[in-house]
Each structure stands twice: as structure tokens, then as C-alpha cells.
Amino acid sequence: MTGTQHSPYPTQAVILAGGQGSRLRPYTDDRPKPMVEIPGTGVPIIGHQLAWLAAEGVTDAVVSCGHLARVLEDWLATAELPLRVTTVVEPEPLGRGGGLRHAAASLPRPDEPWYATNGDIWTRFSLREMAAFHHERDATATLALARPRIPWGAVKTDEFGHVLDFVEAPPSPYLINAGVYVFSPAFTALLPERGDHERTTFPRLARERRLAGFPLPQGAYWRAIDTAKDLAEAAKELAR
């Protein structure tokens, strides 16, 4: 890891859990987005995330709260958690990059690498593999890359315009930011105090070839829970 001799496998993480979740209403009328339960599990999204992080060797997590923070804090105070959790609330809206920097200030080991994840991501893959990938490339930041399925059916044609086939919900031809990250200790100081790191810090690191992209392994489960339809699809996939 750049500038350190620590293990490449982080033991600390930040979960960004302050979003409004307006597209998930009415589920988010009385709770923040990460507190929405995956149907059939009885566990909120953040509960699944904390269990995943703990299984991957994380011992300390900082949860950045915002919208209806008290609901999330109350749940964390009473739930049986598999790791140590600290909550922080932004004093004012800081933007995604500013919020990440504010939360990172509460990490217990600022001189060690750390994971981060958006609070609405439900996924399972090896974070240790991602951390090793990050370490091997001597990156300052690494983002997981997903290839989501297009929500519409696709039509295949030949060069003459004849329809050859219909493909239901094909994989996208593009990779997207999956909302899961590995950061070197030096990354924190590069974050803006307010604003969006994806418009400032990430493009700068990309130009300097210090930003890596880790494609999710074949068959890894990944879903962003943005709408009621996403919840229903997650429940169906879980049942399978």
C-alpha cells in the first residue's frame, strides 16, 4: 500500500447512509434508505452490509447518517452487531465527497487502508480479493465495477435490419461504479471538504493513473436498492 507497510486487507470501513431515498417512498417516509428491509429477510440493508464487512475481516465501521438519522442510530444501539460501529452525522450537507471525508475522520486507524460502501448496495463478493487487487496496483483508490442488467428487453438485428432475436434484460455493455471502494490512507486528504469526489478527486486520480477498477467476479451478486422494483427483484433473487 502506498506509503505503508500494513496488511493489504483493511479492517475498517465507512458506510454512507445519509441519502434521502426519495425514489423508495413510501418505504423511506419513516426511515432512512439503509434501514429498509429486504423482503423475506427481516433485516435492513445495512444489517446485511455489516454482516458482509465482518465476514471479510472488518472490525470497525463508521456509519455516516443524515436523513432520519435517529431511526438508524436507534437500530444500531439495540441490534446484535458483528463489529464495532460508530455513527457520525454531518453538521450540514457536505456532498458525497465531503460526507466521506467527514466520516473518515472517525476511522480508528487513519494510517491504514479502509473500505467504503454506499448504504443502498446489497452485494456479496470477496473484499479481500479487491483489496489485494488494489495493493498489487499500488492504487490510491479502487472502485468495484459492476455490469448490471438492462431493465428492458433487447432486440438483435442483422446488417439488413432483420430482427434475429429478443433478449430479456441483457447485461449492459458498460461497466458502472458499483459503490464499493478500497482506499489507501493518503486518499482521505484528497477528498473535498464539501462537494462530490466523483467530479473532483476521482478524475484527478484517473489522470495520474492512481485509480483502479476491480470488475466484480463472474456470478457475484450485486444490486443497488433504488426503487420499490429493486426491492421486489432482490426478494425474488433471494427466494431463488
Can you put this structure into words, describing what you see?
One of its GO terms (molecular function) is transferase activity. Residues 13-239 form the Nucleotidyl transferase domain. This is Nucleotidyltransferase family protein. The structure is a single chain. With 240 residues, the protein is an alpha/beta fold. It has a single domain (12-146, 175-239), classed as Alpha-Beta Complex (Spore Coat Polysaccharide Biosynthesis Protein SpsA, Chain A). It has six helices and eleven strands. It has helices at residues 45-55, 69-78, 95-104, 127-136, 201-207, 228-239; strands spanning 12-17, 60-65, 84-89, 114-118, 121-124, 141-146, 154-157, 163-167, 176-183, 211-215, 221-224. A seven-stranded mixed β-sheet has the order 3-2-1-4-9-6-10, with helices on both faces. Strands 5-11 form a two-stranded antiparallel sheet. The longest helix has 12 residues, at 228-239. The model has no long low-confidence stretch (mean pLDDT 85).
